[in-house]
């Protein structure tokens, strides 16, 4: 049986030079059984990812398995041809790419979870609910907040926060929940397109060094257009009536505002490491994690004194509710916040990076790059990237583009950043924000409910590209 398996893997392997981002190989596997098998495995894995809502199978599981199988086949083939060092070098390269992004995202998610634990997001939600907004006002407010929060808090976290507000005030109004969630997804993806912190794809482009921190700003107006145009049309279908809601006061936990300040300092540190010392931004982010750890230590050490002071004030006022809240206070723990990171997303990202890296070593990305970025106009290639990102998800599409590493102007690198970000809004499965909201608003925000509005979203997508080409034409030279 082992002999038959060995023969199966080594059949149809023809020598040639395949493309990889920084690795040159003497093997070509694009027309081999191994190559075709890898493509089929990746396609099946991604089909399972797209069906996550229906199968209730976490999206990380199929891609992790696919990555392991693909690299197992590559390791076997390259060892049989005496070139295992080539495969190992490619594997190390992809692992390093993932490690930098993993640590960066882990710190960002830890800060977001710390803010959530300190009830910052609950306070924002309570404020919005307590204002008594109409459905139409709520539609615009959640969209605008999603647009401006996502550049800092990332589009996934922002979308979930705004969805929680919509779900709380809309009750059983499924029609409003669906259209409001579509609006939130569009806004969060658009807002994330002009910031390195707004989406994993923009973070990848920034860390790869193709676009500096300040150079993302020309995408601001195109991003606004990609959100506002669909929102203007959709808002006409939102009733101007008021929902029935119950307002609850939310008290921020100790240190909440200071954690926001530390997060801003952390971002500044990451930018400084990248811009001044030309180190990966992750070095600055890990230093920022130390800020949060030291502040957590301070909160723990001063907790007893703070509780005594608040207890004495509550006793003087006769506030029994305040005393009960003080009795339920637990010390701030950074590592508990780390454990609350979105690990399924982080592991999914690992699977994607390793699968795409394997396909690159097989030579498929070189073939695609040759067609899209040599035979086509780069502008049309980047427009197609946005459309593909709606079908396949923008993370693997952008990682594939970065692995191809085509020679493009700054205008085109900004264009592909824009299209990969806002193109993911065309379908509900095209971005992490859309997939997450299908789970958070299960049965009320659906794939087909989003699909109904795709022509309107596509209008905003096309308009944002046109605005970018017009306003930033000097960057395409």
UniProtKB/TrEMBL annotation:
<feature type="transmembrane region" description="Helical">
    <location>
        <begin position="155"/>
        <end position="171"/>
    </location>
</feature>
<dbReference type="InterPro" id="IPR004680">
    <property type="entry name" value="Cit_transptr-like_dom"/>
</dbReference>
<feature type="transmembrane region" description="Helical">
    <location>
        <begin position="379"/>
        <end position="402"/>
    </location>
</feature>
<keyword id="KW-0915">Sodium</keyword>
<feature type="transmembrane region" description="Helical">
    <location>
        <begin position="217"/>
        <end position="238"/>
    </location>
</feature>
<feature type="transmembrane region" description="Helical">
    <location>
        <begin position="36"/>
        <end position="55"/>
    </location>
</feature>
<feature type="transmembrane region" description="Helical">
    <location>
        <begin position="414"/>
        <end position="441"/>
    </location>
</feature>
<feature type="transmembrane region" description="Helical">
    <location>
        <begin position="176"/>
        <end position="197"/>
    </location>
</feature>
<keyword id="KW-0813">Transport</keyword>
<dbReference type="GO" id="GO:0006814">
    <property type="term" value="P:sodium ion transport"/>
</dbReference>
<dbReference type="GO" id="GO:0016020">
    <property type="term" value="C:membrane"/>
</dbReference>
<protein>
    <submittedName>
        <fullName>Na+/H+ antiporter NhaD type</fullName>
    </submittedName>
</protein>
<keyword id="KW-0812">Transmembrane</keyword>
<feature type="transmembrane region" description="Helical">
    <location>
        <begin position="453"/>
        <end position="471"/>
    </location>
</feature>
<dbReference type="GO" id="GO:0015297">
    <property type="term" value="F:antiporter activity"/>
</dbReference>
<keyword id="KW-0406">Ion transport</keyword>
<feature type="transmembrane region" description="Helical">
    <location>
        <begin position="346"/>
        <end position="367"/>
    </location>
</feature>
<keyword id="KW-0472">Membrane</keyword>
<feature type="transmembrane region" description="Helical">
    <location>
        <begin position="259"/>
        <end position="276"/>
    </location>
</feature>
<feature type="transmembrane region" description="Helical">
    <location>
        <begin position="282"/>
        <end position="299"/>
    </location>
</feature>
<dbReference type="InterPro" id="IPR045016">
    <property type="entry name" value="NhaD-like"/>
</dbReference>
<dbReference type="Pfam" id="PF03600">
    <property type="entry name" value="CitMHS"/>
</dbReference>
<keyword id="KW-1133">Transmembrane helix</keyword>
<feature type="domain" description="Citrate transporter-like">
    <location>
        <begin position="46"/>
        <end position="421"/>
    </location>
</feature>
<comment type="similarity">
    <text>Belongs to the NhaD Na(+)/H(+) (TC 2.A.62) antiporter family.</text>
</comment>
<keyword id="KW-0050">Antiport</keyword>
<feature type="transmembrane region" description="Helical">
    <location>
        <begin position="62"/>
        <end position="78"/>
    </location>
</feature>
<keyword id="KW-0739">Sodium transport</keyword>
């Amino acid at each position: 049986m082992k002999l038959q398996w060995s023969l199966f893997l080594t059949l149809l392997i023809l020598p040639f030079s395949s493309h990889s981002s920084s690795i040159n190989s003497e093997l070509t596997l694009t027309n081999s059984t191994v190559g075709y098998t890898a493509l089929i495995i990746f396609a099946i894995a991604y089909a399972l990812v797209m069906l996550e809502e229906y199968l209730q199978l976490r999206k990380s599981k199929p891609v992790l398995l696919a990555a392991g199988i693909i690299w197992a086949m590559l390791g076997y083939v390259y060892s049989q041809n005496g070139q295992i060092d080539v495969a190992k070098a490619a594997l190390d390269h992809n692992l390093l790419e993932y490690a930098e992004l993993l640590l960066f995202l882990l710190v960002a998610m830890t800060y977001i979870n710390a803010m959530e634990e300190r009830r910052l997001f609950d306070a924002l939600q309570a404020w919005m609910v307590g204002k008594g907004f109409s459905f139409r006002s709520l539609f615009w407010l959640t969209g605008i907040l999603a647009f401006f929060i996502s550049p800092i808090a990332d589009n996934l976290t922002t979308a979930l926060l705004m969805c929680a507000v919509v779900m709380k005030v809309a009750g059983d109004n499924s029609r409003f929940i669906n259209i409001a969630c579509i609006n939130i997804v569009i806004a969060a993806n658009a807002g994330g397109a002009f910031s390195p912190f707004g989406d994993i794809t923009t973070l990848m482009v920034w860390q790869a060094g193709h676009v500096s921190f300040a150079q993302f700003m020309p995408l601001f107006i195109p991003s606004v257009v990609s959100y506002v145009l669909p929102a203007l049309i959709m808002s006409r279908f939102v009733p101007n009536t008021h929902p029935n809601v119950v307002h609850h006061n939310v008290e921020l936990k100790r240190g909440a505002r200071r954690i926001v300040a530390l997060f801003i300092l952390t971002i500044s540190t990451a930018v400084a490491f990248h811009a001044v010392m030309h180190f990966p931004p992750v070095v600055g982010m890990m230093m920022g994690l130390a800020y949060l750890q030291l502040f957590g230590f301070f909160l723990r050490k001063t907790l007893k004194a703070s509780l005594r002071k608040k207890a004495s004030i509550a006793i003087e006022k006769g506030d029994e509710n305040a005393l009960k809240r003080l009795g339920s206070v637990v010390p701030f723990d950074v590592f508990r916040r780390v454990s609350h990171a979105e690990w399924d997303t982080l592991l999914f990202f690992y699977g994607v990076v390793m699968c795409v890296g394997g396909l690159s070593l097989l030579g498929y990305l070189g073939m695609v790059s040759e067609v899209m970025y040599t035979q086509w106009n780069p502008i049309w290639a980047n427009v197609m990237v946005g459309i593909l990102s709606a079908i396949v998800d923008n993370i693997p599409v952008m990682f594939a583009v970065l692995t191809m590493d085509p020679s493009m102007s700054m205008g085109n690198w900004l264009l592909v950043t824009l299209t990969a970000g806002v193109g993911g809004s065309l379908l509900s499965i095209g971005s992490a924000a859309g997939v997450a909201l299908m789970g958070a608003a299960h049965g009320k925000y659906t794939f087909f409910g989003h699909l109904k509005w795709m022509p309107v979203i596509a209008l905003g997508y096309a308009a944002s590209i046109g605005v970018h080409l017009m306003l930033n034409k000097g960057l395409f030279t």
